[in-house]
Write the structure tokens for this entry.
Amino acid sequence: MIVMDESNISFFKDGLRLDGRRADEVRPIKIEVGVLARADGSCYVEMGGNKVIAAVYGPREVHPRHLQEATRAIVRYRYNMASFSVEERKRPGPDRRSYELSKVSREALEPVILTSYFPRSVIDVFVEVLQADAGTRTAGINAASVALADAGIPMKSMISSCAAGKVGDTIVLDPMKEEDNFGQADMPIAMMPNGEITLLQMDGRLSPDEFRQAMEMAIRGCKEIYEVQRKSLIERYNQIEMEPISPQEVESQ
Amino acid sequence: MTDVISEIRKDYLYNLLLKGERADGRAFDQYREFSVQKNIIIKAEGSALVKLGSSQVLVGVKMQPGEPFPDAPNRGVIITNAELVPLASPTFEPGPPNEVGIELARVVDRGVRESKAVDLEALCITPGKQVWIIFIDVHILDDCGNILDASSIGAIAALLATKVPASKFGLGDDYQLPVKDIPIAITAIEFGDVLMFDPDSDEESIANTKLTVITTADGSICGMQKSGTGVLKQEQIYRIIDIACEKAREIREKFLEE
Amino acid sequence: MDRKVVIPGDLLSEDAKRSGEGTFIKDGKVYSLLYGLANYRDCINVIPLAGKYVPHSGDNIIGVVKDMTFSNWIIDINSPYDGLLHISEFPKRIEADEMSRYLCMGSSIMTKVKDVNSTMKVELTLNEKKLGLIKTGRVIEISHTRVPRLIGKGGSMISMLKKELNCNIFVGQNGRIWINGGAEDMDLALKTILIIEKEAHTNGLTDRIVDFLKREKGARS
């Protein structure tokens, strides 16, 4: 077993990263729309080894009533990790990290939701991480955005999310687990397709120039992801149109 | 927040019942289509995604060495937990498991424990010091009724797929967790003197009483749980047990095929 | 191209005047607010695939009494918002302490949305013919997004159903539908409505339903 630490790991081999990607490549993404029956809208996303599922309930009545706002819907976002989603079993329930992630994720989506359409109600977004592999918050936001569309929530645009990082002094797109753990910086962002940024976090160390590079790269990543979100929603509609069996077909069976 | 089924849907179900029908056309003792996908979560030592009708439950098994309980120094530990996450139903609220979630976990645990499907003595590493701890974590994804049976199938499926991660802890090579039985839970509801098996979410919300019977491969009963505020007559209980044994056998066969 | 699947934020037109339902205007251009089908007419409307029923003034709906205050019945209308039926909107003059005698908890009513204000206070009325307490017949619930298809262009589908099924049918915009007629006719009506709900998006539905009804009625006799 190779013991990895910052000093002896080499993140690049022949110009490729540990998982064979180039510096500016995102991991393979799979998006499925409408995977849950009870939820008003839902979406399952795989990004690299991340497996997350998002569900939207609402608009619906707010309980407790005192949280209601007279002129708009409130938006709630709850990010949660399953106990078996990580290497060492995690105790169930929210921790400080999940509270923070929930807050910034909500703030990434709220700017595009037309909450004024639904006074005195709540739009609930729930994201469950079933398997974690660095970048769960970005996968969660990508899934949540599609789930909101699936639920028929009016939005000014979709939101797409991706992270950039710095490993071995190189800016990379969509860091994987080892790059996240042993890298020099990690910067997740979320944005509207027109380039307006709704989420920006960073930890590590970047020069202003490196920051600009990382930003450009992350924006390109978000745009790629937007195309996958769009495609999955359009394809889903066509599926529904073709699915139902007519009375005639049932007869001839 | 309870799942208040609208009066309109309740009436609709009553009317069908009077004609001897269920909303989805099933017979009263018929189970919905189910499927089990194993090893869907590679970070877990074992996992299974169960779909029962539209209900979806994901069970993950994680294992790590730990201290035994003082009153059982040579036996491994099984800890079963269920998360009824709000994503799965408009009636699930965020927070620690409430009485429903706790009951579900304990009944699933009862099936695994009392059937002795997992040999706890074989999980002993160093008597009195170190044993294997098995975490069975049930994560409900979509509650469309009867998540208890789905969770119980998921738990045993995940255990059957579990590899003991000995190498990770320097305790030898990884090996398949030996599982000696396949306990299956079968749940029925009582409604208007009719017994209905594998209730969907509408049927669950109109029923007053539920009875779950867990049986082992040789047809013994290893666990039971009546829940709900209604009553059951003795004859109804015997009838449920008879059908439960039969259904469990069908499910066990189908399950082993997959 | 007069119909297209769109997602939130999709550009629909450079002409702000064409902005219809489910769209918004930014910098003089029209964009989609919803995930659904954009209908390109003079106005571009986006019809969503999903979404909750939001009451509009004038909607015929079916509600269920869920609570009562001093002078209002609180009505569940299958929406994030409750409907309020004030005692003065009851067709007969009654006293506050008589309210539960006429409409009690769980009563189903065919009602109309009188007004919806900016904070989504929904006022209902029973002061119209054809509205009132449901005493006979059956009520079924379908997704409210399918109601337009059930009604059909200019009411074509629903008129055909009333005639062929020989039933009285009251279609609530909130997805609840009341049917009254002979027992067999009501069974067939329920079955038919569920098929329409399932296949609302497909082409040639009206013809298929006409054929279906012919076969079912033929099989009966």
